[in-house]
Structures are given as C-alpha cells and as structure tokens.
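Lecture notes, unit on protein representations.

Consider one protein chain, 749 amino acids long.
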Amino acid sequence: MPTSPNQPGRRAVLTAGALTGLTALPALSAGSATAAPAPAPAPAHPSSTADGAAQRHRWRTAVIGGTGFITGVLFHPEVKGLAYARTDIGGAYRWDSRTRAWTPLTDHLGWDDWNLLGVEAMATDPHHPDRLYLALGTYTQSWSGNGAVLRSDDRGATWTRTDLPVRLGANEDGRGTGERLLVDPRDSDTLWLGTRHDGLWRSTDRGATWARADFAPEPSPAGQGVTLLVAAGRTLYAGWADGGPALYRGGPGTGWEPVPGQPEGSSARVPVRAAYDAATRVLYVCYADAPGPNGQSDGGVHALNTATGAWTDITPVRPGTTAPDGSRDTFGYGGLAVDARRPGTLVVTTNNRWAAVDTVFRSTDGGRTWTSLKDRAVLDVSATPYLRWGEERPKFGWWMQTAAIDPFDSHHIVYGTGATLYGTRDLVHWAPEIRGLEESAVRQLISPPAGTAHLISGLGDIGVMYHDSLTASPSRGMATDPVFGSATGLAMAAGKPSYVVRAGWASGGGNGAWSGDGGRTWRPFAGQPAIASSAPGPIATSADGRVLLWSFVHWDGSTHATHRSTDNGATWTEVPTFPRGATPVADPVDPRCFYAYDTATGTVLRSTDAGLTFAPAATELPSGDTQFRLAAAPGRTGHLWLSTKWNGLYRSTDGGGSFTKAGSCWASYTLGFGKAAPGADYPAVFQVGATGPTTAVLRSDDEGATWIRVNDDAHQWGWIGETITGDPRVHGRVYLGTNGRGIQYADPA
C-alpha cells in the first residue's frame, strides 16, 4: 500500500527538507518576464572541454514504471494519438502512439534550474497542433527560484524560455488542480497563467513577455490563488481558492466577475478541475474543501449551463457517509474530463478517499446518473509489479486528481494516481500506460559485484528494488517483509555481497531488514531501537556482515544516538562516541574498521574495534552541511573520498588520518566507484561535480587526476546530487540517482 498521509513520503520529506537540502543550489535570479533561449534536447554529443574532456555515452532510464504523482494529462483535441503528461517533480512528457511510450521533454534542464523540474501547468493550442506550453516551478518558498514558461513549436522537441518574476509551486498543495495555463480561444497569441500568490497573468505574444492582468480577487502569500483556467466557447473561466466566490468569468475588455448562482459552502470551496462540453454548452466543475492531494474531506460536482446560467448539483456520491470499515467516508473530487464524441458523457474521480478507496465515476446523461468504474475493474499490473505494494491485489488508486478521455476513442480513459497512470479501452480492463515515464526520487544505489541484478536501489515512497533487469520493472516489485515507504539506508557487505541490509519508513513490520541472498528476499530485524520507528536513518554493515551500525535522523533533521548490533539486528546498543546524525561508512576490506564524517565540526572519525568506539582522525575539514559525503573505495583499506560540494573533493589513503584536496575539480556533490579501466589497477571514480562552469556527471580512470564528462547538455535532470555509483562488472557504466526522473544509467557509446 502507498505511504499513508501521516508518514513522510518522498514529497513530504522533499518539501519539509528542501530548505536544508536544496538552499545551497544556485537559485534562479528574479527579473522581468523576458525571453531567454533554453538548451534543447538533442542526441548525445560531446560537451565543452571547459567542463572536462567528453566521451559519448548512451543514456537510458532503468525501468520501474511511474512511481510518482501524475498531476495532469492532456489529449490534443485535433491530433489523434497526441497527448502530454505533467508531474510534480519529474518534468513533462509527450505520448508516442507508435511506440506506446512517453518521451521526456525537460531532461535538458540542468543543475542551476533544479526548481524547474516541477510542472505547474501545461497548455496546447487547438488551432496549432505543434505548439506546447509549460509553466515550470517546483516551490514558492523564499529559498526557491522564480518560475519560467517554456514554449515549443515542435511538440517539445525544442524550447524557447521566458523567465517569470513570480514563483510557481508544482510540488506544493494544489498541484493536482488545473490547468492553470490556457491559450485564449479567441487569439492563439494570447496566453493566461494563474499563479498561487501573484494573481492572474497575461501574455499577448505567445508567452515571450508577461504582465499582471486586471483580476479582482486579492492574492494571498499563503493561499492557492488561481487554481484553474478553462474556456467555454469564447468565454474564459477562472477558479479561485482563497475565499469569496470560487469561480470567475471574463477576459480582456469585459473584466472579470463572479459567476452568478455558483455553489457555496465548504464542499465548493476550491475548484479543482473544470471541463466544457461544447455540444451541450455545459461547463462541469469538480470541487473540494481543500486543494489536495491530501487534506480533503468534502466536495462535489456541479454543472453550469452556459446558455441559461443555471447551475445543477450532479455530485455522484456525497462525502461523509459510513465506509465499509465503519469509518467516515470523507473525500473530495478531483479529475474531470468530457467525451468529445459523446455529448453529456463525462468522468470524474474522487480524491483522498482512503477508507472506501478512490474511484472513477462515469455518466452518459450529463451527470443525472453515475457508474463507478472501480466496481467491476480488472487491474493488470504485470508490467509494473511494485503497484501491488506487497499485497495480493493492487489498489485502484489514490491521489487521483487528473483524468482524460481520448477525443478519438470514447472508451480510452486514463487517470493519474500517486504512482502511475491507469488506462482502459473497454471501461473494464485497466493497466498502467506508463512506459517511458519514470519519476522516482532516488536515495541509494548499490551495484553488486556478482549475481543476477546489476543494481539495487533505495527510493523515495516505494522502498527498495532488486533490479533483475534494467529494461523491465523489477519482477519482485518492491522489497517486502517489511514494505517500506521511503528508504533511508541501504548497504551491502563488501566481503560477503549476499548480505544486504536496508532501513526506512515502514508500513508495518519494522524499520530495518536483512537479506541473505543479495537482496532478492528479506526478513525484518528481530529487534530494533525504540527510536527507529520515528527516525530511521542510514545503515552500514561491516565487510564480513557481522556488525551493523544504524544512525537515526528524524525527517525534521533532529538526530539521535547511533546503535550497533552484532547479532543480525536482534539486539542493539548505543555507540556514544559516534557523531549523531552522521552516516556510517564501512571499510570494504577490514571488518574492524568503520568511518564517519562529522559535518558539524569537519572531523573524520574512525573505529578499529568493529564500531564499538570511534576516535577523531583528520580535523579542520569543511563543515556546516549535512550533505557532505564520505565514500570508501572498494578493494582497499582506508581509501576514503570526501565530497564537500563547492568546497571541493578530498582524498585519504591512510584511513582518514590525513586528506589531500584534489586540484582537478572545484566542486563535488556525490561520489561512487566502478570497474577499473583496462590496464588500470584502481577503480573508476564517478562523481557529480564540476571542473568548469557546468555541474555534470564525471568519471576518472586515474584516481581523480583528470575527469571525463559523461553526460551532455540534453541529459541533465536538474538536481542530481544524491547518489551515484559505477558498475563493478562493466567498465564505464554509471548509475545516477535523480530527484524525480528515476535512475539514469549510461554506457560509453
């Protein structure tokens, strides 16, 4: 089952921890809304030598299938098979009907543009099928950068960019509402953009420049602002979520006014989605008492006859009745779509219906009667087994705030969830239509030296995966016994790779587990410290698998004493000399040695008694950032590498007693190792770092003396500073964790 609302999933953690986790990244500069060209996706090519020598690589995405919140889907009304999807932290995609797969459109956004990987809204132009517009911006907090609008004349193959003077919030509450971006049906050069805290904006030159529109409601710095924009014929409608009338109509020349007779009360507080049936001249609106995706307990669906001005309440089921388990059946309404081929036919989704489980309602008579499509749905998740969440059957959905009906096939309906995009072509059989769309936030990566899997991953929201194939979703689904939400630790015994341990936020059954078969199957630790359930953190195992060290860090950043086990997790004792909150690092050869980096003091500590005690070694290293990372080179005792962001890269060959700063790069964010180059006797070193102006994926085959750039300008994925590793069996292969675009991997071309 998915992470429950009271447990921090990846998006809760990302939002709460963004201040400490991302403020160090260069922010976008504020300024006027003027056009600026953006790098466009292109075939792999060598990059500038200013960022180090380059080598051609073939980049691919390890297949899991979705894994994140699909916040919007649009079919183009005039082109069969053309559709777009947006996500909260993983960019936008275009559907390729020939391959039945999604093509990513925003992978070119780089390190400095990390805040633009969240897509707040998108828009197509019915009169110009090749045009596409994206409104980008992940957070609206003061530490984030301003948003931007991308516009394309070739369906997202290339882009022109306009930086906005306002912030957008694609990973904040209300991200499933919309769309907040609209091409004016009266003039294709005019665009409208609804913002959360800065009112309504208008462009008259296809998004090249923007100006604040005359819109009556006063925006709030803490509100939701304009939640949706929709055209009903030549009239524009805007949803408003910050009190007072919730739906306005108007446009240039006429001004904006509240729609007369609109529904009131808590169930109609926030307009979530709207869709217009041109044949019947009816505008349908879904409402909830909160923007979602969490926190909704009431809602409704209403129809406005735009010809007569009459409103009709067509809510399928009233929230607040008794659910099958005896609890109160509370929820709101979310996704909404009309059938372009069948007047009066529409679908709506419930949202935040945890007791009775969310559903898709369908009506063929304008909302007078409804059928719940969930009630006879047959779900096939064989292509993405993790969707079973450790259960026998998958769930129909949660976080369901977008739905769409193919304008060329009335039985082709899709709806987004917090993990996938389900589709049907007969109203009964449903399967994920998710190929090519990968949205996981990656926390840990291990590439085993032997066995079927070349990769084991720790992920936000969906736990740990054993990748028996890189081109198909893991056949075992997510690791079970126990099932995790977000993984917080993953480690393999270097001298005994069949032994793997993991830690994370559990859905029951303990917060730590071990595997004796290389990560295929798992058993929970027989015991765990009391703090583990509320602050599971990083974990390490000695080279021989006999000693475990488990660090504890709460999602709010508070730290607790690290614990040690010598009986495979049955019993645990505190290690008073281990720095609280630090990540334990095991020596890959000597089972008696562990290391830790105290980021508060800039001190490396080491243990030579199997983690029983720790003593200071090197001091006066960079300090003050919990994301500084220590890594141990495989096959050697005491070879440590320290990534300290823009403070540089440091190296020790004496177990942390002394460090030398590398002069070959000025920034290092995360680092890992792979198979040595032919003729070399030291592992290949991979890092996310910088030798020039661009933060990039780099490889060194000469112990960090020189670096080769592995990625190119078309493959950047925003913020990629969490985890990276090479493959101990394949020289040159690298696995890279992204923050919303899954696991990227590459081989030299």
